[in-house]
Amino acid sequence: xxxxxxxxxxxxxxxxxxxxxxKLQAAHEDHTGHSHHDHAYGPIGVMGDHTHPDGARMIxxxxxxxxxxxxxxxxxxxxASEVLEDFPVSPTDMxxxxxxxxxxxxxxxxxxxxxxxxxxxxEMDHVTRMGGTFTTESxxxxxLKAAALISLLQWGCxxxxxxxxxxxxxxxxxxxxxxxxxxxxxxxxxxxxxGTFDLHPGLTYLGQRDDGSWGGQVSGTVHLGENDNxxxxxxxxxxxxxxxYKWCEWFSSSLRVEIESWKNISGADSRxxxxxxxxxxxxxxxxxxxxxxxxxxxxxxxxxxxGHRLAVEWEWPIYRDLDGPQLETDWVWTVGxxxxx
Length: 341
Ligand SMILES: [Cu+2]
Hints:
12% of the residues lie in helices and 57% in strands. The protein has helices at 2-28, 32-38, 80-86; strands at residues 57-74, 76-78, 89-105, 111-128, 133-141, 145-155, 158-167, 176-179, 182-185, 197-209, 212-224, 231-232, 236-248, 251-262, 266-267, 287-299, 308-340. Residues 50, 52, 58, 104 line the site of copper (II) ion.
């Protein structure tokens, strides 16, 4: 709890500094700087990567597909039959589909406001010690997230902004489905929301040249308090850096590295039996992962295409260390459309 208060205080101090820095910067800015800055978008898998100039609006839609196939314990793969030595049920694979609707609006040059609503569908396959198989599903809208992106510094074609986000527990944590044990509460990774108010602090750096851009972002997720089912998801920290090359005005490619680490769940949902299946064990949820991301982006230049961006990114892990047995992520696809006006 002390660490959370310290983090919160740090965010408030940095935000305060950001407001002041932003005002100083606005005094020096001319309007030709805007369009330049506006094109420095990061890969589509990065959230809150860019800000907008005064009065600009953006609507975005992202579609994400994640595939998790097979289990891992530590950095080693383990088979379902090995998992079944310790548990009567083992997950074998999971797919997650996410639609994410987003809106951005900049009331001033220094502050861009952002709203995001995900809609999630999960599907998980299992095998039992008796040799049976079954699939569970959950679906629904997730946690609504609001953020303020606050310009901190700008020098030349480089910028730094603060990401100050908060999410609301609008997603369900009471998902149930049919299993061989009847209709039961689904384990933690099949729930849609966190059930808690969460902070999403971050810091983003962007640079741009005529032939490309580069950037980095450090971000976190801090879950506040305990949800109605008596648990708190593990906090996350994520660092990512990327570079993008512009082949021409309308087409660019990006390369990205991301390192992410997340903790185990604290507390426990008493309706889940942690001895039945590893996904129901709050102490088998943490992990660290390093991903590579390859992306490309089409940016409309004129006529009806002006202001439209269509981008895709494929991420796959090069390192995974999971507090398992836990299903491992094999790859994530993100396709996104953005329209600015
Ligand atoms: Cu935007």
